[in-house]
Amino acid sequence: MVTSTKVHESHFDYKMDPKSRVSIPVDWRPETEETPIRLQLSKEHELPVIKVFSEEEFDQKFVEVEKSNLLPVQKQQIVGHLRTMSKKVTISSQGKLTVPKDWAEKIGLQPEGQVILAGRGPFY
After folding, report:
1. Is 25 in contact with 124 (CB distance < 8 Å)?
2. DSSP state of 7
3. I need a labelling partner for 10 at 20 to 30 A (CA). Which of 22, 50, 83, 122 fits?
4. Closest of 34, 40, 28 to residue 85, by C-alpha
5. Closest Cα to residue 29, out of 109, 118, 94, 112?
6. 101-119 per-position pLDDT tens digit
7. What is the pTM (predicted TM-score) of this model?
8. At what angle do helices 55-67 and 72-84 cross, to 10 degrees?
9. 38 near 53, Cβ under 8 Å?
């Protein structure tokens, strides 16, 4: 069960630093740097995207799949996809999120290149 969900709104234009890190707006950061978040590879509007979820929001996806009327094999496929297309990360004490190098390359993010952070409700 999700306790208190932050709502992320607006969008911000940033640049990745040479180490493939991007600064996260203060209002969007977890309460502590030890708080894990989830990155998930996705495609939105035919564009490569990395979605960022709190652990609670990510776990809610599995609850929704389990409650669905899908066949067990379909549920297994969705859960498998969610697990293989996600990574657990943290935001540093300086408010920087390191994008895994292989994921950055996969979607075309370049060190010192442009990054757009977009607030989409309970996830970034």
Report:
1. no
2. -
3. 83
4. 40
5. 94
6. 888 888 888 888 888 877 6
7. 0.74
8. 160
9. yes
CA of 54: how far to CAs of 28, 50, 76, 115, 116, in Å? 10, 13, 22, 20, 19
Q: Token pair for residue 59?
A: 């776990």
Q: In this structure, which amino acid lies at residue 107?
A: I
- Centre a 10 Å sphere on the Cβ of residue 111 and count the other Cβ atoms it contains: 14
Looking at residue 11, its amino acid is H
What's the burial of 13, exposed, middle or buried (CB within 10 Å: 0-12/13-18/19+)? exposed
pLDDT, one tens digit per residue, over 9-44 is 556 677 899 998 998 888 778 877 788 889 988 887
Rounded distance, CA 57 to CA 71, Å?
Answer: 23
Q: List, for residues 38-52, the tens digit of each pLDDT value.
A: 998 888 767 778 888
CB under 8 Å to 15, separation ≥6 — which residues?
A: 22, 112, 113, 114, 115
